[in-house]
Design goal:
single chain, alpha/beta, Rossmann fold, six-stranded parallel β-sheet, two-stranded antiparallel ribbon, 9 helices, 10 strands
């Protein structure tokens, strides 16, 4: 099996503007007693992110535990007495639709089709605060032809990469040993080192690497910039066998 990260691996997010997402949600409010602005809501959201370790701290370390977005939303809007007559899932969809602009990474569909033709199973492990249902819907919207056996969102499983527990959960679901799995991701620490420390072979995908991300993996890994490179490597490996 080959498992994948989501953001900057399967999908290249070109921009993230949380204020736009917050403004879109606030526009749906049925009751805003203090006429709180989107800027005020977003300022609190930023502070909450720091409190729970979602936002990178000065130490450079992030929390290894995930807080589900539904709980985060509840605190954020109820703090101001704001009422929104939408389900939690609807609220997070409104936010995401306006905050994120992305597209599938170059040649990812071709690579997934190749893996299917080789009878190589696929799955996803994502560090994400949004709900698992939301993650599945978004992946399916970007890559409708995918055949992922399962999609793990850290929001539903407590632990975040690089914690071993989330990788171990994926291995249990796949019923495979670490040596039978590769993991592809853009993040040097969460994806590459996290997978390697669990005995999973890591592939560092750099084709959609964000410019600010300067981290280098501590682990040995395969580096690629395009999914076609991995097709070639796997083809050559199959011929050797």
């Amino acid at each position: 099996m080959i498992m994948f990260d989501y953001g900057q691996t399967l999908v290249d997010f070109k921009s993230f503007e949380p204020l736009k997402g917050t403004r879109a949600v606030l526009n749906q409010a049925s009751y805003n007693p203090e006429n709180i602005s989107a800027e005020e809501v977003q300022a609190l959201a930023n502070e909450l992110g720091k409190d729970i370790g979602r936002v990178r701290q000065d130490s450079g370390k992030e929390s290894l535990l995930e807080i589900h977005n539904f709980a985060f939303q509840n605190y954020l809007y109820e703090y101001f007495g704001i009422e929104i007559n939408k389900s939690s899932k609807e609220v997070e969809k409104i936010f995401q639709d306006d905050a994120f602009i992305g597209e599938k990474t170059t040649n990812i569909e071709e690579f997934l089709e190749f893996l299917d033709s080789m009878n190589i199973r696929t799955a996803v492990i994502s560090n994400i605060t949004f709900s698992g249902d939301s993650l599945k819907e978004r992946i399916n919207s970007y890559i409708p032809s995918n055949k992922f056996e399962f999609i793990i969102a850290s929001s539903e499983y407590v632990f975040r990469k690089p914690h071993k527990r989330i990788f171990e959960m994926a291995l249990r679901k796949a019923k495979l040993n670490p040596a039978d799995v590769w993991y592809c991701g853009d993040n040097a620490v969460n994806d590459v080192d996290g997978a390697s420390f669990c005995g999973i072979f890591p592939v560092w995908y750099k084709g959609a690497l964000e410019s600010w991300n300067k981290n280098i993996p501590e682990s040995n890994c395969l580096e690629i910039n395009d999914w076609k490179e991995l097709i070639k490597i796997l083809n050559e490996n199959s011929k050797v066998k």
